[in-house]
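Long-time lurker. I teach an intro course on protein structure, and each term I like to show students one example going from raw sequence to a predicted 3D structure in token notation. This year I'd like something fresh instead of my usual example. Would anyone be willing to generate the tokens for the chain below so I can use it in lecture? Attribution to the forum is fine with me.
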Amino acid sequence: QLTEFAAQRIKSLINSRTTPAAAEQAPQIYGVKVGVRRRGCNGYSYVMNYCYSPEEIGKLDEVVEDKEVRVIVDSKALMFIIGMEMDYVDSDIKSEFVFN
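-- Reply from a regular --
Happy to contribute to a lecture. Here you go:
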């Protein structure tokens, strides 16, 4: 699931990359893909990248369409993310997507 704030931030990021001038130079963004990356000895961190076409979606990836945004969850990240809510936090010292 996505909070409204997370959905708004994803829309904002996608819209900033798909200006009319940029649309001529780069392909349209299909959605955002969330995955995990092993990070040193303290475990995993979440990574997020733009997904430009349905062909980039793996057979076991999960596609979530909620609040007019499309989030693709990498199959390797499913066990870490399933059942969680994606939110966006913007404070004086950090701005980031979080999973609750």
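Some talking points for your students: The chain has a mean pLDDT of 87. The longest strand covers residues 31-38.
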